[in-house]
Amino acid sequence: MSEPRFLVTASPHLKAPATTPQIMWNVVGSLVPIVVVASWFFGLGAFLVIASATAGSLLTERLLGKKGSLRDGSGMITGLLLGLTLPPGLPLWMAFLGGVVAIGFGKLIFGGLGQNIFNPALLGRAFLQAAFPVAITTWPVQVRGFWNIQSDNLALPFMGVGESDMVTGATPLGLMKFEATGTNVQDLILGTIGGSAGETSALLITLCGGYLALRNFLNWRIPISIFISVAILSQLVHTLDPSYPGPLFMLFSGGLMIGAWFMATDMVTSPVTNKGCWIFGAGIGALIVIIRLWGGLPEGVMYAILLMNAMVPYINGWTQPKVFGTRVQEAAT
Amino acid sequence: MAARRRTFRHGVHPPELKELTEAKKIRRMPFPDEIVLPLSQHTGKPAIPLVKQGDRVERGDKIAEADGFVSSPVHASASGTVKAIELWPHPDGTYKPAIRIAVDPYSAQAPRPRMVPRWEGLSPKEIVKAIQDAGVVGLGGAAFPTHVKLAPPDDVEIDTIIINGCECEPYLTTDHHIMSEYPERVHMGVRIMMHTLGVDRAMIGIEKNKPDAIAAIRATLPEDLDITVHPLTVKYPQGAEKMLIEALLQREVPSGKLPLHVGVIVQNVGSCAAIAEVFDTGLPLIERIVTVTGLGVRQPGNFIVPVGTKVGEVIDACGGLTEDAHEIVFGGPMMGAPQANLDVPILKGVTGVVVLSKDETKPKESYACIRCGHCLDSCPVFLNPQLLGQLAMAGEYELTEEHHIWDCMLCGCCSYVCPSNIPLSQLFQVTRSALRRLQAKESAA
């Protein structure tokens, strides 16, 4: 008898090269250019906000998560995405706390990677929005000069933010909503506007997201259906009442681009079926338009995605694939 | 009119890896010192031995007979003396009864003179009987007795015979070389089957990555028969019966039914050649063509191997294993069975011996399911492997039946694409054996 020196595993014995950590780290990699550009536009402060959110996420993952779970890269994504949704002038301790909540309550409490219902980064942001409504809607204008840190960044935890000397301005969506002022679409596409760190350059975000779609690391149907749904609905409303903004402004303003490419496409919290992804994206698009135009907030991407996250189990149930050979069976009976 | 579809939906594209043996002509492998012939080499009841220890047998003698209709006899693949009938390692991982024959080193290995029947003069029943007596089983891997497929029940009407020359498994070039080197044999087998079943139409499906096989089969097409050749998209599992029928005829085999329920019989090209052999030389199925390949074997090639040759001897005849040989698989790497023991014999249904190197084998670690949906996009029968896997892991076996676990072909596409390396296909096998046990318990109670 020969010695047992051969591997015995169940078929198939080959495996496609893509692995979960590889997908996650690719997402991280494609977020890097966005972080770099955001830091360039908003200065070191923006970078520090993103870094604080990421530090909060990673530390929580390390302390409370499964052993070695940092290596799968998903905690890193949550931290970066959260940081990119925050205003560049946010006090750093708030960003850090947001990261802790995002991972702790957004992911680990459900059982870690793959188990959560809501996008962790958006859950963290929703928490910050509820806890610090003023700070999270204070948008500094873009600064020229990278070393410029917004004075609010360094505020101490839970100390009232004193008389701020920060130069603030409104975001394009805020301008539209509260002052009925439009913004040049070209500025929106390039990113030379106010807003959250990652809300700015639609062009760059599309390039980075497109790379992931080409490698099948995100389901392209989700961003595309969001765009289509937003475009159609806002065109409809715009036609009926031209005082509402047109589809171009709606598509390229606010967090729509980063939300559509990077947050709605989170594999864990989006449907598993392709048909489901179309429905999911269409629902997000509709909610964005409704919240933006008639809601109390200027921006609706976060709540639109979180609400549709909650619908995912139902969408999956509605869109189960038709098993081969059952269609003819039904026709016969 | 809709364009003719040349494939099925979903599926995967594993690396083809056929270049190792693609250009290697079929060669005969020397007879080993010992032949081990398990009584169970086919789907159905094991054969019943006709010989006892010490008996002298000649090459081609029947040494075990079929037990009923869905069973197949076993023939001596070399002349020699019966050493023992005992339990022996079987490629399915268990020990099963087998006839061991010490091969006579001085024998010319010539079979006894025999009468070869003229098939034109035989009735379909007699042809079916002759094919069963010759021990012909499906040579594409499943080893389902060929004669059973040629005797469909009276209430179904067969209008098409589909010949499977897809060979969609990576690495294997067995069917490829049968088609490119023995195309007339394949056609003769098709002719005999068409005669037996009274069917006027045959279609040969071949994946496009075998242009020389397509050319050889086309060049030798008999003019008096309606046989057509169909080059198909290269995609795994194109050679699965249901997928092949869908690609060629756009017919969907109903869930839980067989190809014959949509009027089709599917046979592998190797089986066709084996049928031809029965009515050509009169020899039963005692040898087959095997691709011995993989980065773990030194001199890969395509060989005629006597059934019952131990895999260790086959590998030695190919220059032995390399340093990093890690896993030995019978059949293709997608659906084949891993072997732990070099004494396991080559059976009638073994299409190839693939020795994988360490780098090619699957990683050990798996991750949590991230619900990416890649498994749903790959499943050729449109299951939800993600959900089935979850249910299987939770032990909810009965629930998996509602989600069509029995429609799974165990093709392995879902496991192949899973980025978290979750052994989905294995979970489904486990679930199905658990369900079979439950059913057995219920029917016993």
Description:
- The complex is a heterodimer of chains A (333) and B (445).
- Chain A is mainly alpha-helical.
- Chain A is 57% helix and 0% strand.
- Chain A is built from 14 helices and no strands.
- The mean pLDDT of chain A is 86.
- Chain B is of the alpha/beta class.
- In chain B, 27% of the residues lie in helices and 20% in strands.
- In chain B, strand 7 (80-89) and strand 8 form a beta hairpin.
- The radius of gyration of chain B is 22 Å and the shape is globular.
- The model of chain B has no long low-confidence stretch (mean pLDDT 93).
- Classes of the chains: A mainly alpha (333), B alpha/beta (445).
Secondary-structure blueprint:
The complex is a heterodimer of chains A (333) and B (445).
Chain A (H helix, E strand, L loop, with lengths): L19 H23 L1 H21 L9 H11 L7 H15 L13 H12 L40 H8 L5 H6 L11 H13 L6 H20 L6 H6 L3 H8 L10 H21 L6 H18 L7 H7 L1
Helix pairs in contact in A: 1-2, 1-3, 1-8, 2-3, 2-4, 3-4, 3-5, 4-5, 5-13, 8-11, 9-12, 12-13
Chain B lengths: L25 E3 L5 E5 L9 E2 L6 E2 L4 E4 L8 E2 L4 E10 L5 E9 L20 H10 L12 H4 L10 E6 L8 H8 L1 H15 L3 E7 L3 H9 L6 E7 L8 H9 L14 E5 H10 L8 E7 L7 E6 L4 H7 L7 E6 L6 E3 L12 E6 L16 H5 L6 H9 L3 H6 L10 H5 L6 H21 L1
Parallel strand pairs in B: 1-14, 9-10, 9-12, 10-11, 13-17
Antiparallel strand pairs in B: 2-8, 3-5, 4-7, 5-6, 7-8, 13-14, 15-16, 15-17
Helix pairs in contact in B: 3-5, 4-7, 10-13
List its traits.
A: 333 residues, mainly alpha, 14 helices, 57% helix, 0% strand, globular, B: alpha/beta, 17 strands, 27% helix, 20% strand
* Count of individual helical segments of chain A: 14
Given as residue ranges, the uncertain stretches of chain B (5+ residues, pLDDT < 50) are: none
Strand share of the residues of chain A?
under 5%
Number of strands of chain A: 0
N/C terminus separation of chain B: 56 Å
Major β-sheet strand ordering of chain B = 1-14-13-17-15-16
Most residues in contact: chain pair? A-B, 47 and 67 residues
Main sheet overview of chain A: none
Helix content of chain B: 25-40%
Q: Name the average pLDDT of chain A.
A: 86
User: So what's the overall shape of chain B?
Assistant: globular
Q: Pick out the low-confidence regions of chain A.
A: none
Describe the largest sheet of chain B.
Answer: 6 strands, mixed
Number of strands of chain B: 17
Structural classification of chain B? alpha/beta
Report how far the terminal alpha carbons of chain A are from each other: 56 Å
Estimate what percentage of residues of chain B fall within beta strands.
15-25%
| Fraction of helical residues of chain A | 55-70%
What sequence of helices (H) and strands (E) makes up the elements of chain B? EEEEEEEEHHEHHEHEHEHEEHEEEHHHHH
- Helix-strand pattern of chain A: HHHHHHHHHHHHHH
